[in-house]
Amino acid sequence: LLDDIALIDVLNNTKKTGEEIQEKISIAVLTEKQISQAREEFRPVATRGATLYFLVAEMALVNSMYQTSLTQFLLNLDTAMIAAPADKIPSKRVANIIAAITYSTYQYIARGLFERHKLMFL
Question: Taking a C-beta distance cutoff of 8 angstroms, is the pair 48, 101 a contact?
Answer without folding.
Answer: yes
